[in-house]
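Our example copied in:
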Amino acid sequence: MERIWTDFANSLWHDWKGHGQSEDRLMQIKWQQFFLDRYQYIHIQEPSAAEGQRMLELRDSLIEAAGSLARGEMLKDEDIDFYNQIMHKKCLFPEIIKQDEGLELTYAGSILDWDDILADIVIDFAKTVIEEDPSRIRICDNENCRWIFYDETRNRRQRYCDDKLCGNLMKVRRFRAKKKEELED
């Protein structure tokens, strides 16, 4: 399941292979366009300096909150206040929709700027924390990667963001370390 908040938080990219490189993609136009396309937002203007600062603050807060939740801690009151402030900027209006089963009252809105998108990101994060199991929020065990993900496995033991990439890399590293240790003995 794709989560807009984890993709947003993971815009701070680290070289998972361990070459020590990292890249902050959040303010890159190419990454922003990819993000808008992926989540089917209309293309809006580049973020203003103030919006860019709020984007960075939210991303850093989500990374910190994910780490806290992964350790079994609760969200801090100041984080909840921060997220509420962002969500309060969302432009929503009530709308009656006709369904096969009858009428439904929903809340719709339009995306006007980056603050609306930030509100959507926080709403998705809030749904994960409140409606799902926050103890399933993980940070990849590959120290070089540190990717944030939601563990959807049945046994709740997923350790890596991707078993084929980080998982295999770490398996090879463990194997090589064991062989090296055997040769030294």
Residues 49-70 form the longest helix (22 residues). The mean pLDDT is 88.
